[in-house]
Specification:
Elements: H1 23-28, H2 49-52, E1 60-61, H3 73-85, H4 95-109, E2 118-121, H5 124-135, E3 141-145, H6 151-158, E4 162-166, E5 168-169, E6 176-177, H7 179-183, E7 190-196, H8 208-220, E8 224-228, H9 250-254, E9 256-260, E10 274-277, H10 281-291, H11 300-312, H12 314-336, E11 342-343, E12 351-355, H13 364-370, E13 373-374, E14 376-377, E15 386-390, H14 395-409
Parallel strand pairs: 1-13, 3-4, 3-7, 7-8, 8-9
Antiparallel strand pairs: 2-10, 5-6, 9-10, 11-12, 12-15, 14-15
Helix pairs in contact: 3-11, 4-11, 5-6, 5-10
Bound molecules: pyridoxal-5'-phosphate (PLP).
């Protein structure tokens, strides 16, 4: 990697040119066993969307949802082995690849998935579109959470449909669909309901009871639920458990499209690989038909990384979740001690959702950029009171960001 822009990383968090470690590494390496999430990897000159946004500017990028962590050694080795082969032609999956996904659901959630229910797609956003296009042929409306990852609002419109926003609640500081309001709502005109669990932004994980009520609503209204579970492996508290939608009931299994990927938890989003689990033969066929001539094959590195992550990545993932839990707790304490900021206590994701409304800023994002910290505007997710902060980075980077936020506000 080219190192000539290292000066943009503040001097006190820059890596040692020989070891690649920061001062902090040597202090905390023990805590993170063999994986040092404290190590700063210089991502300049790698076409990183996250880092290139503020090229040549002294702004710490804490916006788009990828982490700055180097991948698990098992993924690195698997990719190196594949690369050594030297031939990278068209690549397709076989039953064994699908079985790795099925085994993952069994091992992780004690939940049965048939290998032939798995459909590989280069990205989750593509699957949201495919689901809408394949299922809403006779229907104009698509139900979608109101405060959510932006593509939930734009993919229906791109498919010529209308995004019908579902009311959210912030009760108990968990951002989620207001199920009481949902149950009173007429879903007429919709066949598809988009759903995000864990919820981005906000990081709430829906409970099994909440999922059951949503499934009942879908059954009563003849809806297919498309469950985006891309953040499912990022769990910040040991006692919390993700419930895949397909595990909720026989109806949910037969009337859903469940989307998953290794991309967020294992930081391989750039390798463009995800899967859809579609148990219902008709829904799966319609989805596949919609892919024809539009969706390309997954690249060989995408498969390699995903299969290595699912089958051998548990140990690394547990260590990363512990590290992220530490980052979350650190941020909660620091940000909530600053007058005018209120960070919600998230259960999943590395994306803090911070209420800045008390500050009464005209352009909150620009304010913090001027302070040297690049965040995502809440308006992207349909709530202008908030900013989203990506804490999937070395603690020392976060500490520097907090220092800058304090300097701007205190
Ligand atoms: C909830 C959610 N879905 C989908 C995506 C993007 O998925 P992909 O890159 O596989 O299209 C993101 C990325 O941040 C996300 O947070």
């Amino acid at each position: 990697m080219v190192q000539n822009e290292a000066h943009i990383i503040p001097a006190n968090i820059a890596p040692d040119p020989v070891s690649g470690n920061t001062q902090k590494d040597t202090n905390t390496m023990q805590d993170n066993d063999t994986y040092s999430f404290d190590t700063i990897v210089d991502r300049h000159n790698t076409h990183s969307s996250k880092w290139d946004k503020y090229k040549q500017q002294d702004i710490i990028p804490l916006w788009v949802a990828d982490t700055d962590f180097k991948v698990a050694p098992v993924i690195q080795r698997a990719i190196e082995d594949r690369m050594d082969h030297g031939v990278f032609g068209y690549t397709s999956t076989d039953d064994q690849c699908n079985q790795v996904v099925a085994d993952y659901y069994q091992k992780k959630y004690a939940c049965h998935v048939d290998a032939n229910w798995v459909v590989w797609v280069p990205g989750i956003v593509a699957s949201l579109s495919l689901a809408i296009r394949s299922l809403s042929t006779q229907h104009q409306q698509v139900l979608t959470p109101d405060i959510v990852y932006p593509y939930f609002h734009t993919t229906p419109a791109a498919a010529g449909k209308q995004a019908n926003h579902l009311t959210m609640t912030y009760a108990q500081n968990r951002v989620r669909i207001d199920i009481d309001a949902l149950e009173k709502r007429n879903a007429q005109g919709a066949r598809v309901m988009l759903f995000c669990n864990p919820q981005n932004p906000g990081g709430a994980m829906y409970t099994r009871d909440e999922l059951r009520r949503i499934d009942d609503y879908c059954e009563a209204n003849n809806l297919v639920l498309v469950s985006d579970e891309i953040h499912a492996d990022i769990i910040l508290d040991k006692d919390k458990k993700h419930v895949p939608y397909l595990d909720v009931s026989a109806h949910a299994l037969n009337n859903s499209i469940v989307l998953g990927a290794a991309s967020k938890a294992f930081n391989v989003a750039g390798l463009a690989c995800s899967w859809a689990v579609i148990a219902n033969d008709d829904l799966r066929q319609a989805f596949k038909d919609e892919m024809h001539g539009i969706i390309s094959e997954i690249n060989p590195f995408g498969y390699t990384a995903t299969l290595a992550a699912l089958s051998q990545g548990d140990d690394w993932l547990a260590a990363m979740n512990r590290y992220l839990c530490g980052n979350r707790d650190y941020l909660l304490e620091e940000l909530n001690a600053i007058k005018g900021l209120q960070m919600l206590p998230l259960e999943s994701t590395f994306l803090a959702w911070v209420d800045v409304s008390e500050l009464k800023l005209e352009d909150p994002c620009a304010f913090f950029e001027a302070a040297g910290v690049g965040l995502s505007p809440g308006s992207n997710f349909n709530d202008t009171n908030f900013l989203r902060l990506n804490f999937g980075c070395a603690r020392s980077v976060l500490e520097e960001a907090v220092k800058r936020i304090k300097a701007a506000l205190i």
